[in-house]
Design goal:
The structure holds three protein chains of three kinds.
Chain A lengths: L4 H15 E3 L6 H8 L3 H47 L6 H6 L8 H4 L2 H30 L1 H14 L8 H9 L1 H7 L6 H14 L3 H10 L4 H22 L8 E4 L7 H35 L2 H17 L6 H7 L3 H8 L6 H13 L4 H10 L1 H29 L3
Helix pairs in contact in A: 3-6, 3-11, 6-11, 6-13, 8-9, 9-18, 10-12, 10-19, 11-16, 12-17, 13-15, 15-16, 16-17, 17-19, 18-19
Chain B lengths: L1 E2 L8 E7 L3 H6 L7 E7 L6 E5 L2 E5 L1 H5 L1 E4 L7
Antiparallel strand pairs in B: 1-6, 2-3, 2-6, 3-4, 4-5
Chain C lengths: L6 E6 L5 H9 L16 E7 L2 E7 L11 H12 L4 E7 L3 H13 L4 E6 L1 H6 L2 E3 L1 H8 L3 E3 L8 H7 L8 H9 L18
Parallel strand pairs in C: 1-3, 1-4, 4-5, 5-7
Antiparallel strand pairs in C: 2-3
Classes of the chains: A mainly alpha, B mainly beta, C alpha/beta.
C-alpha cells in the first residue's frame, strides 16, 4: 500500500518533529571555506589555483621527478643495454618482437615488448597515474567537486550539460572507463550521450597525459588547448543537433571533510592494483600486436592506403598510421610510438591530438557498449566526423599560422 | 513575496510555493514552510546555492525562479 | 527467482555513507568519496554474522523510488529484482527528514526494513540529536546509530539484521499521530525486536 506523495511528506514531518532536535548550529571553518569556494568572486580564482596546482604537481612529480630522475636512468642505462646484449640473435623475429631495434639507445625507440612496453607501463605511466589518483582522491574526498560543479555550471550549460558533468570529466582525466559509467549522474539520455561522446573524443586519460608529459613536454599545453577548444565546439554543436532536454543542475553540496588517510590509501591501492592487473598486460600485448602487424606488412599497407588523407588533409607523415592502430589498444602506447617518428613540432601536436580524438581505447569501447549499443554507434559516427573535421581544421590553423 | 532567485546574498525567507520540479526539490529539503537562505548566485544566469536545514543545495536559475519565498520578519517554522 | 531472503539491500540518499558502511560490514572495496553520486552501479559483498551468511548489495544513492537519473534507476531496479530481501535503509543522522521519505516508501512496498542512522558522530558535532528509541517505536523497525567512518555501531547493525521488520504504513501513521506525546509507555511493544 502506498501513500500519496504529500501525505508521505506530512508523515515524515510528524515523525521528524517527534524524534529530531537540532541545537544551535555553529558555523565551523569548513562552512566558511565552503562558502568562499562557491562564491564567484573568491571561488573562481580558487578553482583556477586548484586546477593549476593539480596540473603542476602532476607534471613535475610524474614527469620530471620519477620518470626522468629515476626510471629513464634505470631503463635506458641498465635494462635496455643489458637486454640487447643478453637476448640472442638480433636478426630474429623474437628479438624484434621482444627487444626491438638492436641499435636503439632509449626505451622509446626500441619498441620491443620488454623494452618500450615495460618502460611505458612501469617507467612512465605508473608514476603518472599514482600521483594523478592521489590528487584526484583528495578532490573527491574533500567535497570540492560539487562546488567546482556549481562554478562550472554556466559553461557546461552551453554544451547541453550541467555543472555536475565535471564529475565524469575529472574521473575521465584519470581513466575513461569509470567516467563512462559515471555519466549516470546526468539526468537525460541526451546529456549522457553528449557527455559520453565528448569523453571518448576529447578527454585524454591519465596514462596518456603521463606519456605526453614525457615525450612532448613543451607541446602538452597546445595539445590540451586544442582538446579543450574541440570539447567546447563539438559540445555546442551536439547540443544543437541531439534531441532531448537538458535539465538544470540540482545537487546537494556536502560539507567539507578532511580526506581520511585510510580511505585515500585504500582507493590509491585499489586503483593502482587494477592498473597493474588490467592495463599493464594491455600495453605489453599492444606492443606485440603492433610489431606483428609491422612484420606482416599490414601497417605499411595501411600507411600507403591512408597516405593521401594523412599527408594532405591532416598534414602529418604517413608513418603515424602505426601509432593510430596502437591507439585502439592503448593511447599511452600510441603517444610513445609517435615520439619515435621524425616530425615538425606542429605535426607532433596534430598527431597527438589525432591519437586523442581518434577511437576510444578498447576498454572504453567495451564500457560504452554496456551503456547501450545505439549510443555507442551514434558516438562512433560523431567521432569519425569529428576526427575528419577537427583534424583538417587543426592543419588549416597550422597553415594559417605558417607552422604546418 | 519574492522568487528564490531574487534573494540577495545572505537574505533568507520561507518557502510558500513551489511551481516546478516540486518532487525533486522536496527530496533535497526545499519544502513548504522551510526557511532558506541565499549563499550565492553565479553570474551569467548561473545556478544559485541556498542553505536549508543547515545544508547547502545548488540549483539552476530557472528552478529557483519557480520557488516563491516570503521574506520579512514573520518567518515560519 | 533466486532466494533473496538472505539478501541485504542497502538503500539511502546519495552521500550518506552507504558505501563506507558496506565496506565496514563486508570488508569490501566499494569506492567511497564525498560527493553525491559516487556509486553509480551496485557492488555485492558477503557478511557472516552468527553463522548466517548474508549477501549484501550496496545500491547507488536515491532520493526516492521515482528514479531521476540512470544511477537512481539502478537502485530502484534492485529493489524490484530482490523481492523478499531485507532492505537496510541508511539515513544521514544530520538530515533525517529526507532519508525518512525513502524509508517510508520502502516500508510501503512491504519489504522487511532495518535502519542505520549513519553519520551519528557528525550529528553530535552539529548538536543534532535523534531519539532512536522513539523513532524505532514509531516506525516499528530496528534503528541502529552508526558511524561508518569510525566503525561505531557496525557490529550492532550486523547483529540486528535478522530483526528487520515488515510493517504496515497505516500502523506507522497511527503511532506517529497517536500516543507518542507521552513517550514512556510500559509494555508498548511494537514488535520491532529492538528491545
Amino acid at each position: 500500500m502506498a501513500l500519496p506523495v504529500q501525505e508521505r511528506w506530512d508523515l515524515v514531518d510528524i515523525i521528524a518533529r517527534k524524534t529530531v532536535a537540532a541545537g544551535a548550529y555553529r558555523q565551523n571553518l569548513g562552512d566558511v571555506l565552503g562558502d568562499l569556494t562557491v562564491r564567484p568572486l573568491t571561488g573562481i580564482p580558487v578553482a583556477f589555483a586548484v586546477l593549476y596546482a593539480f596540473w603542476s604537481i602532476f607534471s613535475s612529480f610524474a614527469g620530471a621527478l620519477v620518470t626522468d630522475g629515476f626510471m629513464v636512468k634505470v631503463f635506458d642505462s641498465h635494462w635496455l643495454p643489458w637486454l640487447q646484449g643478453a637476448w640472442s640473435d638480433p636478426a630474429s623475429i623474437h628479438y624484434f618482437l621482444f627487444v626491438g631495434d638492436p641499435l636503439a639507445e632509449n626505451c622509446f625507440e626500441a619498441f620491443g615488448m620488454l623494452t618500450s612496453g615495460l618502460f611505458v607501463a612501469i617507467g612512465v605511466v605508473l608514476p603518472a597515474i599514482i600521483i594523478f589518483y592521489l590528487m584526484m582522491t583528495v578532490l573527491e574526498d574533500s567535497g570540492y567537486l560539487p562546488r567546482l560543479a556549481v562554478l562550472m555550471d554556466t559553461v557546461f550549460h552551453r554544451i547541453g550539460l550541467h555543472g555536475y558533468a565535471i564529475v565524469p570529466v575529472i574521473l575521465g582525466l584519470g581513466c575513461n572507463t569509470p567516467a563512462v559509467t559515471a555519466t549516470r549522474v546526468l539526468e537525460t539520455r541526451k546529456q549522457r550521450f553528449i557527455m559520453m561522446t565528448l569523453l571518448a573524443i576529447f578527454i585524454p586519460c591519465g596514462a596518456q597525459l603521463g606519456v605526453m608529459l614525457e615525450v612532448i613536454p613543451d607541446a602538452v599545453g597546445w595539445v590540451m588547448l586544442f582538446l579543450l577548444i574541440g570539447f567546447g565546439i563539438f559540445g555546442f554543436i551536439l547540443d544543437r543537433i541531439i534531441p532531448g532536454s537538458n535539465p538544470e543542475i540540482l545537487i546537494d553540496v556536502p560539507p567539507y571533510h578532511w580526506p581520511l588517510w585510510e580511505n585515500v590509501t585504500k582507493k590509491l591501492m585499489n586503483r593502482t592494483k587494477s592498473f597493474l592487473k588490467d592495463a599493464v598486460p594491455f600495453v605489453l600485448f599492444g606492443v606485440l600486436v603492433v610489431n606483428v602487424l609491422y612484420l606482416a606488412g599490414i601497417i605499411g599497407a595501411l600507411a600507403d592506403l591512408f597516405e593521401p588523407l594523412f599527408v594532405t588533409w591532416f598534414g602529418v607523415p604517413k608513418e603515424t598510421v602505426g601509432p593510430l592502430v596502437a591507439a585502439f589498444l592503448r593511447k599511452d602506447l600510441a603517444v610513445a610510438q609517435l615520439s619515435a617518428i621524425a616530425m615538425t613540432p606542429y605535426q607532433m601536436i596534430t598527431a597527438v591530438v589525432l591519437v586523442s580524438i581518434y577511437f576510444p581505447c578498447v576498454a572504453t569501447f567495451v564500457v560504452m557498449l554496456r551503456e547501450g549499443w545505439k549510443e555507442l554507434a551514434a558516438a562512433v559516427a560523431v567521432l569519425v566526423a569529428t576526427v575528419f573535421i577537427y583534424g583538417g581544421l587543426i592543419h588549416a590553423v597550422g597553415i594559417l599560422m605558417g607552422v604546418a | 513575496m519574492k522568487r528564490l532567485s531574487e534573494l540577495e546574498y545572505g537574505e533568507s525567507g520561507v518557502v510558500r510555493e513551489i511551481r516546478a520540479s516540486q518532487h525533486e526539490l522536496n527530496c533535497l529539503g526545499i519544502r513548504m514552510k522551510k526557511q532558506v537562505k541565499m549563499i550565492t548566485r553565479q553570474p551569467i544566469k548561473g545556478p544559485v546555492v541556498v542553505v536549508v536545514d543547515d545544508m547547502e543545495v545548488a540549483m539552476g536559475l530557472d528552478t529557483a525562479e519557480g520557488v516563491v519565498i516570503e521574506t520579512g520578519e514573520h518567518e515560519g517554522s | 527467482m533466486a532466494d533473496t531472503s538472505r539478501t541485504v539491500l542497502m538503500m539511502g540518499n546519495p552521500n550518506v555513507g552507504k558505501s563506507a558502511l558496506f565496506n565496514r560490514l563486508t570488508g569490501g572495496d566499494a569506492v567511497v568519496s564525498n560527493y553525491p553520486g559516487t556509486t553509480v552501479d551496485y557492488t555485492k559483498g558477503v557478511l557472516i554474522e552468527n553463522g548466517q551468511e548474508y549477501e549484501v548489495i550496496d545500491a547507488p544513492g536515491t532520493y526516492s523510488l521515482e528514479a531521476r537519473d540512470a544511477a537512481e534507476d539502478v537502485a530502484v531496479r534492485l529493489i524490484s529484482e530482490n523481492p523478499g530481501a531485507t532492505v537496510l535503509v541508511v539515513l544521514d543522522a544530520t538530515r533525517v527528514e529526507r532519508g525518512l521519505y525513502l524509508a517510508l516508501e520502502v516500508i510501503e512496498r512491504g519489504c522487511p526494513v532495518i535502519i542505520a542512522l549513519n553519520m551519528i558522530d557528525a550529528a553530535r558535532e552539529r548538536q543534532i540529536t535523534v531519539d532512536t528509541r522513539v523513532l524505532q517505536r514509531i516506525l516499528g523497525v530496528p534503528v541502529v546509530p552508526t558511524s561508518a567512518v569510525s566503525g561505531e555501531g557496525a557490529r550492532d547493525l550486523a547483529g540486528m539484521l535478522r530483526k528487520a521488520q515488515k510493517v504496515d504504513i497505516e500502523t506507522v501513521r497511527a503511532r506517529a499521530d497517536g500516543q507518542f506525546d507521552t513517550p514512556e509507555q510500559s509494555g508498548g511493544c511494537t514488535g520491532c525486536g529492538g528491545c
